[in-house]
Amino acid sequence: MEQTYAIELQNITKRFGSVVANDRVNLSVRKGEILCVLGENGSGKTTLMNMISGIYYPEEGRITVDGREVKIRSPKDSFDLGIGMVHQHFKLVDILTAAENIILGLPGAQVLDMKQVVREIRELADKYGFDIDPNEKIYRMSVSQKQTVEIVKMLYRGAKILILDEPTAVLTPQEADRLFDVLRNMKKHGCSIILITHKLHEVLAVSDRVSILRKGQYVDTVETKDATVASLTEMMVGTKVDLNIERPEPKNMKKRLELKHVTCTSKDGIRRLDDANLTVYGGEILGIAGIAGSGQKELLEAIAGLQPVTEGEISFFPDDSEPKILSNLDVAAIRKLGVRLAFVPEDRIGMGLVGSMDMTDNMMLRSYTRGKSEFLDRKTPGKLAAKIKNQLEIVTPSISAPVGRMSGGNVQKVLVGREIAQKPKVLMVAYPTRGIDINSSYTIYHLLNEQKQHGVAVICVIEDLDVLMELCDRIVVLCGGHVTGVVDGRTAKKEELGVLMTKTMKNEESDAQRAETDKNGESAVQAARTGKGDAGVE
Amino acid sequence: MNKEPLFRMSRRESIGIGKQILIYVLALFLALVVCAGVIFLLVRMNPIDVYKAMFDGALGTKRRTWITIRDLLVLLCIAVGLAPAFKMRFWNIGAEGQILIGGLVSAALMINIADKIPNTVLLVLMLIGSAAGGLVWGLIPTFFKAKWKTNETLFTLMLNYVAMQIVTYCIVFWENPKGSNSVGIINQKTRAGWLPEVLGNDYFWNIVIVLVLTVFMFIYLKYSKQGYEVAVVGESERTARYAGISVKKVMLRTMSLSGAICGIAGFILVSGAGHTISTSTAGGRGFTAIIVAWLARFNTIAMVLISFGIVFMQKGAIQIASQYGLNENASDVLLGIILFFIIGAEFFIKYKIERNHRQEGK
Question: In CATH, what number does A254-340+423-536 get?
Fold first, then answer.
């Protein structure tokens, strides 16, 4: 071996029942490099990382750390080898300070010298360029600050190999850039970093090498400087994919929906959506950008009749009659008005579909009330299910198999297919391609465009700004429940969106929590995100 | 060094009906083996003889067979009543109370107005009254849950005790003979308010009522729009709201139905079986029926078989308890063992156990 790797995995296999989650996977990380592990959902990235961090034990294969073969049987073994993992869901105690969280569970003297600890943490932070206040309590921190604490925790405990699982999913573009700077710094100091992500732009921006997994199998490892978005995608998917999302010019734009001063207050009195004004036209795709938990869910649910509107008004403009007020009507009442709204919620199984029911019964969810009979008509939905299965190429043993057993992409096709079959006037989709393979994602984008060309007003919440800028005609940016800007999708800049996503509102009525976080000058956002933070992290 | 466990479990993708039955049969067999062991330890008897006695106890004579069928019908009726509630994931632990209130209404009518109206009218009134009684008893906790999100499990359970106290209270007035602290057989001479004998069979009407309810509930849950709503609410209230289903309305409607059927079970117990009322009229059947409903996965047709199995075991266990001089609680022990294995079988239907075959690296 010419070079000792910080960690090397050879022919790792892990099965779950008959499912092979990892099939003879190889992975090697050099000292002082950033390695991206790239793969679609279900390709086995997380399983692989869980084996390095001692949560699972591989059935076959060897793991070597610093050239020495090791067995990692528990998280503690993993830690003793200097491996630290930052999970998507933070594992921090909210009411303790950053420093207290960092030393939690570490052995040490009976008498704790907190000053010494804080000093050490400050030294670490200076060395790598972290922005952290060790005496700040966790619940007062923003999501990105919490993430910083997690990373510092690992370093303080002496981790030399750091695994980050989709760290940028909860960050704004600016925060992500800051994180990458820190990672580069750590690299300079000899740390090895494994970064799990599926955002290709990030891979190209930050990594030295990329390892690609596909359906549990190891595809290849390439030098990042030789890779392009197209080449990486091809390796991830296995076939060439046309990555261009078309964006036909909007035609016959017609005012469909108008939101005036819409405010939604949660049960604990937080204004999740605050004085939102918005007009949506038929024939356009309106994108909604924002950090997780900025009011996207409330906005869509308020329109759909699932969220009480505490102030303001939502009106729908039909083709040939007077506008209809939708605010504070429930789903059944909106349906009775003859307003055809379609809604693909973020929570596909759990809100949009019933997992234990088959395709036919799920089709009925929107239409079972039709007809006077007390009995169900399963024929029509059955036909619809068969049609959608064929048209959208849904992979399932039969239309009478439970949808909960299908893969994420197929589940989403069932849901989108059903919603479009209602021939809606307004189509709302939340995170339509989250956790979905690339081919299915493009099918979905295509379907949205098709609806737009049919004159439907399409509203979509998408977290990936690159996609949003390619697909949408206009982009609305939400921050802390406020609409902070509406920009043209064709000319929008990522930086501009990023600024809007964290924009502070003037005249903010500051409740106690908000006032306290004010010191960083990003008050409203941070408070909103601290409150919602963990719920928003997916 | 901590070792990996030797076995691991994983969820089954699907399982054939044949395999399912095989697992249940195996579970039953194992249960009988363990029961045999327990019996042998207690009385040193040949278990085969004991099982013969069990069969004898349940189906040995014509009379015993009919008693088994009678009890089977009551258990089935309650399970059918519980099916929609549990399908909606409404934890109706209060069947006992709903049965008692239903039975109480029947008894009250039998005692107080039997001599004033024709028997047929009386029976119809009793049926309706019992259903209404059970309905109200089922509706109270549902109303509170719909309005203030109270916990239905505790609420329905507590109402059982309330129902028992009401029965105790009424018995004071209805005592017959005085001082016995029991109601005795009501209208023993006139047989007023007793479900009449048809074709020489005492239980004809029991069979008709329960079978009609069973078939009705099967169709209701599977083919009606309301049944579909029950299923959706049971799976996820969020989905129900998304589909425009009023969760509160469905909850109230479904529990009315559930309570009413349990009330009818009370009517059958009083009018078609015991002809009396006491705090033990329901006798724990409201709890046993929960097991029946779940094991049958709310398929009321499957409930017929499961109810039969459970009643058969109960009767058999009582027989061996008396035949071999064990006290009555011994039969509960045996039934407990059997149910433990049958419910345990559920696990093996959902999951499979595999040996960990891992290679040692060095």
Answer: 3.40.50.300
